[in-house]
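Running co-folding for FHN.
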Amino acid sequence: MTTSPWTSRQPLDSRPVVPVEFGPLVARRDDEPMRRFRRYGLGQFIHFGLYSLLGGEYDGVRAPGAPEWIRAWHGPTAPADWTTIYDGLNESFDPAGLDARVWARQAKAMGARYVIFTTKHHDGFALWPSAHSAYSVANSPFGRDLVGEVVDAYTAEGIDVFLYFSVLDWSHPGYSDGPPETDRARAGWQEFLDYTRAQLLELLDRYPAARGFWFDGTWGRAWVSSYEFTHALEQELRERRPGLIIGSRFRNDEHGARHFDTNGRLLGDYEQGWERKLPADRAMLGGNDWDCVMTIGPNAWGWMRNTAGEYQKTADDLIELLMRCRSMGGNLVINFGPDADGRMTAYEDAVAEQLGAWISANADAVYDVGPADLDASGIGWLTASEDRLFLTVVNRPVNGVARLRLPADAARVPVSARLLASGRPLELRRTDLGLDLDDAVHYDTVLPADFAADRAFVIELTLGAPEGETVKRAEAWM
Ligand code: FHN
């Protein structure tokens, strides 16, 4: 196992096993919710909250950093009394164009099978009328239960809902980054823990259709040192909602190891650290489930009014990322940041439409598939189902021949090929290059010269028993 980019975990067998009392509560699950998770393929992330009213700027001045972090704005460009101004935004929170059913219909057409929705981001503003905080939609002109509307609208479209919840909470006086050192701070921290637990149980009870929690903001040292509490709370959440899915960000062990315990075991149902990055290969994943959450711009999760100078990923970029994730058994979750009115941006609308068109034409390569573990020689990304291989071509070979390398003794090999979107049959050749010491055989799919494509396309290869064998000639003496 190779190490992950965000942890210092070592290959399991190179270190002595350390006693861990607050390690994983679950081993790799194979129940229906997790099997469903593996089939999702594409997800949608939505970042929406008070920060969406601002779009990353105030009074025409652009704040540095990500727009959803704007409350943390400080330094010479920050407006005077900035946090007070920000914290009062609930009084004008009333996104006039917000209709969760429009979001959900768009997500459905795009091909998303799950959504992760920000119930509460770092600012602490709850998008449901929480009984445990005055800082919520209940105290805004909007007044509606936005979390409930999202859960209902997406569930009605057959899209599973995961509740994003930030533990880091700037609105709670007891929240602290470092471990509390005075009696007063300890009491405040305990209040914060009670409040966090109460809100999580409240979310579970209010929204029985939600499939899981997507935790964030769990890096603070006080939270890390509260491992007994988080261990018990994870257990409580799982007991309260059997089948609930919890990612690896929620908690750490008693040695401070996050995502993975000190012995390298995953702390949750799936690996949740792949934020705006992808594993280089499948070996890095150590067999764990995972998803990758990705922004369309470089690093803005909330709406950004002015994106000048910031590259926005195209539908082509996102299709390639999606199929790269799928080729390694993961899901891609694309982030959307609705604007101050609660509407997706024109760019997001366009990307969603283009993705939807591509995915609906190539659905078999996207959803109920796993990795193929074959070398696609840089042509693209491979996914596999029971009896088919799907090669998503992103780099069309100049000679028009898409070559796949298989072990010479493979029990199942491609026996026919066609273009997935149109069904057009393609010529398939078995090619033995006759290289000395080569233990591979190649299957070449010939792309017709008259086949034009301006976007990635998928070659579907049906698998069957190999026919015929390479003639073995005597090797020359050397
Ligand atoms: O700080 C947040 C950020 O604003 C955003 O919510 C992302 C989404 O994965 N998570 C945090 C950083 O890990």
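Result summary
The first helix runs from residue 32 to 39.
The chain has ten helices and 18 strands.
Job closed.
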